[in-house]
Amino acid sequence: MILQGEADSQAFGRRLARSARPGDLIGLTGPLGAGKTSIARGLLAELGLAGEAPSPSFAIVQPYDPPEVRFPVLHVDLYRIEAPDEAGELGLDEARLDSLLVVEWPERLGEAWLADALWLTLSVDESGARTLTARVPEAWRARWPLT
Questions:
Q1: Which of 1, 19, 40, 78 could form a disulfide with 143 if both were Cys (CB 3.0 to 4.6 A apart)?
Q2: Which compartment or compartments is the protein found in (predicted)?
Q3: Is the pTM of this model over 0.70?
C-alpha cells in the first residue's frame, strides 16, 4: 500500500482502529519520519481522542483511557529502549490484558511479544511516498482492513 503523506497515514490509522481491540499489539516499524506516529494519531482519533496525540518519544508510554477513547490504549515508542529486558520493565504484559498496544519500534520488545502482533513496516522512497507492508497474524486475518 502506498501512503502519499500524513493525511493518507492518518486515514489508514482510522481504518485500522475500526478493527483493533483490547489485547491486540500493533507494531509500527520503519525509519524516523516514515509516518508511524501519523498512523497512531489516526487510530487514536478514530477511537475518540479529541486533539492531536503527542508523540511518546520521551515519555515512552502514553496511556489513553475511557472516556477519552473507547477502550484503553497505550501508545508506546521504544526508540530509546536498547534491550528487550528494558521494555519488560514498562509493564506492557499486564497492560495488554485489557488495552490495545500501539508500539513504535516493536522489534525492541523481542520475538516472544511479536508472534501474534500485527506488524506494519513503513519505508520511504525518494519522492517521499511511504510504502506500507504488513505481516498479518492469524488473529487479524478476518478483520484486517485491506481484505
A1: 19
A2: Cytoplasm
A3: yes
Looking at CATH, the fold of the domain delimited by 9-125+132-137 is given as Rossmann fold (3.40.50)
Nearest to 1 by CA among 132, 89, 122, 120: 132
- CA 128 – CA 20 distance, rounded (Å): 28
Strands 118-124 and 61-64: unpaired
* CA-wise closest residue to 119 among 58, 36, 54: 36
Q: Which three cell numbers stand for residue 89?
A: 520493565
Q: What is the pLDDT along the chain (147 residues), one digit of tens a residue?
A: 888 888 999 999 999 999 999 999 999 999 988 889 999 999 999 999 998 888 888 889 999 999 999 999 999 999 988 877 787 788 888 888 899 999 999 988 877 777 889 999 999 988 888 899 999 999 888 888 765
Q: Contact at 8 Å (CB) between 20 and 140?
A: no
Name, in order, each residue with C-beta under 8 angstroms of 56's C-beta and a sequence gap of 6 or more. 62, 75, 76, 77, 104
